[in-house]
Amino acid sequence: MKSYVDLVRRRLEDRANNIIGNLERYMEPQLRFTMRIFGDCLDDETRGAMFSGYSEHLAEQELRAFAADFVPAYTAYAIAELEDKKKGGERHEPPFLTQEEYQEMAVREKWPRIAEHMDGVTPLQLRREIARAAMLFLPGMLSDPGFNEGVLEFSLYFDLLQRLRSVSDRRLREAAGEIAPRVAAAVSAVAEEDREAMLAEIRAAAAAAAGLPADPKTLLGPPMEKYPREVPPAFRLRELKNTLSTMALKDLRLTALVHLDLLTVEETRRLVLPFLARYPSFYEMPSNGLRELILAVAGGVDGRSITYFIERYGSGWLAMTKPVDHIVWKLMPEEERVDALRRDNERMDAAMMARHLARFLHSESERDLSDAGKQIALLTDARFVADHGAILKRLGAEGGGERIKRLYDTVTLSSVRMAGQRGEEREAAYQAVRGMIADAAGVSAATTEEGESDG
User: Fold this and answer.
1) Closest by CA position to 219, among listed 257, 163, 166
2) What is the spatial distance between Cα 451 and Cα 446, in angstroms, rounded to a whole number?
3) What are phi and psi of 428, to 5 degrees?
4) pTM (2 decimals)?
5) What confidence tier does 1 reach under pLDDT thresholds 50, 70, 90?
6) Preceding peptide of 29 cis, ω within 30°
7) Residues 349-382, buried b or exposed e (16+ Cβ, 10 A)?
């Protein structure tokens, strides 16, 4: 009969061969998730070496090429760790657990071992287990062996790990000592409400260790969001350049319009006019000229997006200024968020504000405002262009644009409140914002009835 080490070694080797053999079928999210799973089983020093040059913002082919080299190297590391931990025999408690075994064990199975052998658990592993404990949202997660990998889908897990890096070993063990008996109590509880109450206490203890004054459940965010969230400028421009190289002239013109939409009048003069001066008109610019123009704009105002003017309320990805960390934004008092948004507004001019206000009028739902495809389509919509011009003329042309600034500030305050609402209440708040803009600007909100605008 083969030993435990032999069986696990064979499983690790077979898994690696299967991944390498199917890498061409892995899409970008699968590739990133594979790196997250294996990266969560490396010690800090080895991770730093093995992940040198890696970023979740690499292109898909680059991720695939990285995985082709990484997976065999990781497998060799995992086998070496297995052989080292089990050299004295098959033992399944700290300090003889491999990092993969920690990842494979259900919470209800793992935490009693941690409690009994706390001194044998490394600070790194305590950080991981406390971060996972902070994400115990449902009673079923206590028994689910897939829970440990499931949390890796969410950036919150990595935010928690980062916060726990600065926590002392003593505090980590204190937090683990608070969590372990609560895990046991949650496992043994019969009533669902008792288990849920105990999970809330577990999350509170883990959050306190990480310095979070809120239930992590309120900070979860979308699955498989790239981490870190902010794209390094070099990656952003490189990816854009590669994309532009494959675009036809028609698509290049639309992409250029998207980038021009992100600029103030002053930025347009500074970044765009030198390019336009070379050609009779924008629509007579050749492909190479458009590519150069797009890259110049992207490099000059790095980090902007056509939808950030609305997404900033929920995420902290400001439209004109440096983004605020996701968790910091979520925990900010409303007054501080408003101050940050007003500073962001100060970087806009009347023309940009008018564009944003027109986007409200031409988006029948808040979801439409966050839909990049729909917002891009507006750029070639004659009704949108006309309404943008009308708003700018009526509200932004006099007195240094004070009227449009006041309206935009009111919309900002209303949108902050709307971001904290849900369901029908939120929808009603959104439609009230549209109505307020229409009344102030004298331009009716667009509807889809018969495909025509009321404006």
Assistant:
1) 163
2) 9
3) -65, -40
4) 0.86
5) low
6) no
7) bbbbbbbbbbbbbbbbebebbeeeebbbebeeee
